[in-house]
Structures are given as structure tokens and as C-alpha cells.
Amino acid sequence: MINKNYLFNLDYRKLSNQELKQRLTTLLLINVLTIGSLIAAITIFGPQIGGMLAYISVHRNEKDKDNIQSTTAPIFSNVPKATNKESLTLNGIAKPGSEIKLFVNGPEISTTTADSNGLFTFVDIGLVEGANTFFAKAIDTENKESPPSQVITIEYDNKAPDIQIEFPKEGETVKNLDKRIIVKGKVNEKSVIKVNEKLAILKNDLSFEAILGVEEGNLEVKIIATDEAGNKKEELLKIRYEKRS
């Protein structure tokens, strides 16, 4: 057997030309044999190695896919920002057959099961006045629990918005040559404002105004404010308009 360490550790400066050629030839032969052995191994065992790597890759992906499916959090759908009802219904989607746990303002309060299409519903969920927070978890048929869903917040508000009318005042006579009246006021929360069925402009400071075309005589101005929860407040003004300066 050729001693490779012996060949590599020699001081070639002390060898004659003939000895140097012999030892270089031996080293070249060793390298050729080594490379040939590697090529032979790859040729013989290459398909088996490739197949093993492919098997690992495929099954690893299937495992990851299964984990993703089994741990997907529920998703709520069509969630309102606010409501004026003391209870509501929540719908969503999750992995079919999963048990869905609902948490309201902290504790778990209800469970249901996602149907074959992955749809689930919670009915008559009681609310407290003000902000209510919700999230859910799913437990699939393999008893794997999902992470919490996205937390949603729904405001329970059963009080109508306040309307303060700044102009014109009740019973006031408005005089100008424009045959128009600018109605101005303010509300205490974000609302949709209509003045005689015409949409008013609501500003960032919750003040509003609307321009009405009018004719001379006695007039009624109806102002309706509807907040995000659906609560309505109505104010009715009786004024008079005269076309003169």
C-alpha cells in the first residue's frame, strides 16, 4: 500500500531528478484513482441518493402543508364596527370539521363546529356597553389547536347622537337675496347627517353644514343624524325666509 503521508511530507528539494519524477508519477496515480473512485460511487449510488433526497423533500413539504392546514386560525367575516343591539351574530371560516372556541372580552364564552365547507356561526353573543373584543381558536380533527385569530373590536352603542343647531335658530327669519339658507350645526360623534334629505358635509371637528335652496315663506328644516351603530336623532326647525337684504 502506498503511504500517502510519506509522499506528501518528503522534502523534494533533496531528491534527484529521477526520484522526483517517480514520486510525482505516484502522486498523480493516487489522485487519478481517488477521482475515479468518486465517479464510480456517484454512478453506482447516484440514483439511490437522489431518490432519498427527493423522498425527504416531498414528505417534508407534505408535513409542512399539513401543519399549516391544521393550525390555521379562524377568520371572521362581515364584522361591523359598531351596533346598537345588545347581542349579535358572528360568522367566519376555518378548517372544515374544526371545533371553534370564541373568546369575548377575555374569557371563552362559546364553542361551535365548522361545517364541511369550513363555515361557522355564533348566535346571540351578548355585548357590554362600549368596546367589545373578540378572537377565536380552532381545534382540528387531529386535536391540533390553532393560534388565536385576529382580534376584532365591536362598539356597542345604543344612544342616539346629539345634534346642536347653530344656524338658523328655531323661529328665526332669514333674510338674503340668494334664495338659499346655510344650515350649520355640530354632533357629538361620527355620523351621517342629512338636512331635508340632502347629505351634509361633516368636518373633522364633527361640525356640519348644508346649503338649502328655498322659497319665501315659512319653512321646515329636518335634520337627521345617524351614527355608526345605526342610532338616529332627528331635529325639526320651523323658520321663515324672506328674499331681501
What Rg do the Cα atoms give? 41 Å
Helical region count?
2
- Helix-strand pattern, N to C? HHEEEEEEEEEEEEEEEEE
Average pLDDT value? Answer: 83
* Beta-strand residue percentage: 35-45%
The CATH homologous superfamily name of the largest domain equals: Immunoglobulins
CATH T-level topology of the largest domain: Immunoglobulin-like
**What's the number of domains?**
3
User: Under the CATH scheme, which architecture of the largest domain would be assigned?
Assistant: Sandwich
Name the shape in a single word: elongated
Helix content: 10-25%
Structural category: alpha+beta
Q: For this structure, what is the CATH class of the largest domain?
A: Mainly Beta
Poorly predicted ranges: 49-69
Quote the distance from N terminus to C terminus. Answer: 123 Å
Reading side by side through the largest sheet, how are the strands ordered?
2-8-7-4-5
Descriptive account of the structure:
The chain crosses the membrane at residues 24-46. InterPro entries: Ig-like_fold. It comes from candidate division WWE3 bacterium RIFCSPHIGHO2_02_FULL_38_14. The protein is α+β, with helices and mostly antiparallel strands. It folds into 3 domains: 17-62; 75-156, Sandwich (Immunoglobulin-like); 163-243, Immunoglobulins (Immunoglobulin-like), CATH 2.60.40. Helices cover 24% and strands 42% of the residues. The chain has helices spanning 4-9, 17-70; strands spanning 75-77, 82-83, 87-93, 99-104, 108-113, 119-126, 130-139, 152-156, 163-167, 173-176, 180-187, 191-195, 198-199, 201-202, 207-213, 217-227, 232-243. A 5-stranded mixed sheet has the order 2-8-7-4-5, with no helix packed on it. A 5-stranded mixed sheet has the order 10-17-16-12-13, with no helix packed on it. It has a 4-stranded antiparallel sheet with strand order 9-11-15-14, with no helix packed on it. The protein is elongated and about 130 Å long. The model is unreliable at 49-69 (pLDDT under 50).
